[in-house]
Design brief:
This protein is an alpha+beta fold and 109 residues long. The protein has helices at 9-34, 41-44, 55-65; strands at 69-78, 81-89, 95-101. It starts with 8 loop residues before the first helix and ends in an 8-residue tail after the last strand.
Length: 109
């Protein structure tokens, strides 16, 4: 029986490089199968609905139902819904913020 011939240094490096590339390709494919990319958040977010109530109407509603003096109104989005935050000065001297759903007109707090 003949003794095995040692591989030249260049052949060993080439073999190691091919082995590493193969492992990289297999692991990348495995990850791609197991971890599907999440849908983009822009697609998941709801588009803001058009307000059925204006900021002034929200302020009037809060003043009639809660009382006090309206100091300001801010508009914000919460889970795709327009919400008005109406800041009022109560007769007791305390400031209070009341949130109003712009679509339904419901006072939220």
């Amino acid at each position: 029986m003949l003794p095995p011939h040692p591989l030249p240094a260049n052949s060993k490096l080439l073999l190691i490089a091919l082995l590493l590339l193969s492992l990289l390709a297999v692991s990348t494919a495995a990850l791609a199968n197991n971890q599907r990319p999440e849908p983009r958040q822009e697609n998941q977010r709801q588009q803001p609905q058009r307000a059925a109530l204006s900021a002034a109407e929200a302020a009037d509603r809060v003043q009639r139902q809660i009382g006090g003096k309206v100091m300001g109104v801010q508009t914000r989005q919460s889970n795709g819904t327009t919400v008005y935050s109406v800041k009022i000065l109560q007769s007791s001297g305390h400031m209070r913020t009341v949130n109003v759903n712009a679509q339904t007109g419901a006072i939220m707090n």
